[in-house]
Design brief:
By secondary structure, this protein is mainly beta. It is about 5% helix and about 40% strand. The strands form eight sheets. A four-stranded antiparallel sheet has the order 5-6-8-7, with no helix packed on it. The protein has a two-stranded antiparallel ribbon with strand order 1-2. It has a two-stranded antiparallel ribbon with strand order 3-4. A hairpin with a 4-residue loop joins strand 5 and strand 6.
Length: about 280
């Protein structure tokens, strides 16, 4: 850590003298994080709120503003404003291979291009009650198991069918708040999935039936679910699937509060039976 040393020597008589040493540590000095302000930190330091901090001095989960403030290999996760290890397997069971056993890979938006970056974060919840802690409908009301030992909070949704016509409901609040479309997507470990709201396709033609997909970075359009490809929701008792995916297959997810989450998706079963989904 760099320190500024000022040594003053005062001599008032030929027989004696004294030295005064001032030790000024730049860490903790006042600053202003506004780049247009002239109150800056020394080289090797940067401003965090109103105090200078040394580069690479902050550990995991500590509050940060810039990547350089976090110790390697951590980065300062946007939106979270805390230091985390980077990862790529968003909400996937395989994130346990990138993160600690009690963590999962959470996607966060990086501005200004709205791309995604993953951060290893601790499990959000044990039950849905933990997700509702601040009594906000936007804080999430579904606790979904994403790895063996880590769960994530989401906003739950539902798929309702009238005859052969199906539509998902429950994501309007998120769409209104964030001004982007949300869609109802099964998320979680296999056989532990719950239907939750995810940012949906926003580009023309994106997320159409049969398109390859990934729930976060390449989502499906409303009315479809991502299972490697975009599959339409359907009603098993009154199926109406497109020719390319002519079979309505039943899917079984998690059991929540004693109720099994069931949903149906259209699949191509020409060469294989309905998959376990």
């Amino acid at each position: 850590m760099r320190k500024l040393l000022l040594i003053l020597t005062v001599t008032s008589a030929p027989l004696w003298g004294c030295s005064l040493v001032l030790n000024w540590d730049p860490a903790g000095l006042q600053c202003d994080s506004n780049p247009t302000n002239s109150t800056h930190c020394s080289t090797g330091y940067s401003c965090l709120v109103d105090k200078c901090v040394a580069d690479s001095s902050l550990g995991e989960d500590e509050t940060c503003l810039l990547d350089q403030q976090c110790a390697s290999p951590l980065f300062c996760a946007p939106q979270l404003h805390t230091c985390h290890k980077a990862c790529t397997s968003y909400y996937a069971a395989t994130s346990a291979q990138e993160c600690a056993v009690s963590e999962y890979c959470k996607p966060v938006r990086v501005e200004p291009n709205s791309s995604w970056k993953g951060a290893c974060v601790k499990s959000d919840c044990q039950t849905a009650t933990d997700c509702r802690a601040n009594q906000s409908p936007l804080n999430g009301d579904a606790c979904v198991q994403v790895t063996e030992r880590a769960n994530a909070c989401f906003n739950k949704c539902a798929v309702s069918c009238t005859g052969s016509s199906c539509a998902d409901t429950g994501c309007a609040l998120l769409s209104d708040k964030y001004k982007v479309p949300y869609y109802c997507q099964p998320m979680g470990k296999l056989s532990s999935e719950q239907l939750v709201c995810m940012p949906g396709a926003s580009l023309p033609g994106q997320g159409s039936v049969g398109n390859s997909c990934e729930p976060v970075t390449n989502p499906c359009a409303d009315g479809n679910a991502c299972n490697q490809e975009c599959h339409p929701y359907c009603n098993w008792s009154a199926p109406a699937c497109p020719l390319a995916m002519a079979t309505c297959c039943p899917c079984t997810g998690a059991t929540v509060d004693g109720t099994v989450i069931n949903y149906d998706l259209c699949f191509d079963t020409t060469s294989s039976p309905c998959p376990k989904c």
